[in-house]
Structures are given as structure tokens and as C-alpha cells.
Amino acid sequence: MTAATVNSQNKISGTVLSAEDSTAIIGASIYFDGTSIGVSSNQDGDFDISFMDNNSALIITSLGYEALVLDASEILKNPVDSKYYLPFKREELETVYLETDPWSRSRKLRHFRKEFLGRNYAMYNCKIINEDAIKLRYSPSEKTMKATAIEPLIIHNEYLGYAISYRLADFELGFQMNAVYFYPIPLILLVQPTFSH
To answer: Does 43 lie in the same domain as 72?
Structure first.
């Protein structure tokens, strides 16, 4: 179903298509999991990206589609076909909770920003552009707060001079025994410089 072409310059090239009708997916994100190595597909769905044998899994994703995940061995086993088909993401029903969330959204956002963006000076120069995409819920019985996002988060960092598109796959913040812990799954999609005017 999926394959890649690895040429002598250690490049993977391919085309991202819709599994429904085989049309090109423009602006799909293609990146190696947990790294800043990423590109976007062009108007024809085409892309190429640098590859090394020790790279992490290659992830191809686009808003409204299921993500495709390929490890290095899968890429190297199938060097002929260069088409990647993404199925539409089916809408999921909203989860029904049996307990009330007593925290306001502003309180949850304060905790999320502090743990997600960090606690140092650079945090105050970071801004999540599309915070409305973040779904937050605090469970008083479990003393945990969970966060998900319906689209990649766009984060501007004026202090370091970059913008990041970040797919928040999972985030859990725990408040147990006067300690705070969290489990994010970082999937960085695209990194680009920002310039102050």
C-alpha cells in the first residue's frame, strides 16, 4: 500500500494522495517522529525529504486524514512505489463524562502553558496561535488534566526566532502527592524561522 524511493543522495521522494479518490493532498506534513526534520507536499502532492538509516519513524499527516506511520525498515523494503494513500478521518463521537470538570478553561490553560511551553524566560516569548484547537479536561477523581488538539498547534517563539507546527497526540498532567508530572507525545511537523519587523 505504501512505499518509498530512496536515491543515492539519501532522499525519500513520493506523492501523498487521498485513499478515497486518489487526488493529491496539498500541504501534507511529512516528518521524522520526534525531530525537526520535516517538509510539506506541494500542489501535486509531491515531496522529498532527507533520510538516514537511523532515522525514527516517518509520519505523513494532513488535517482531516488518518496519519500514516512508516519505520525505516518498511521504507527500505519497498523502494519502487512512491505513492502514499491517506484515509479520511472519521468523526468521533464526543466522550461522555460521568463527573463534572470543576476547573475553568482559563485555569486549565495556565497549567497547560506552564508545563507545555516551559517555566523559563523563553516561555514568556512563546505564543500558541490557535489555542482554541486545544481540548482540556480536569478529572477531580484522578487528579489529572488531559489535553488533545483537533489540529496541529502553531507555536511562535520570538525569543529563539522560530515557528513550530506541533501535533499534540497526547498530554496528561497529574497532580498527585503535591507533585506535578506530565506525558506529552511530541510530534514536531514543521519548523521555520520567524523575523521581527
So the answer is: yes
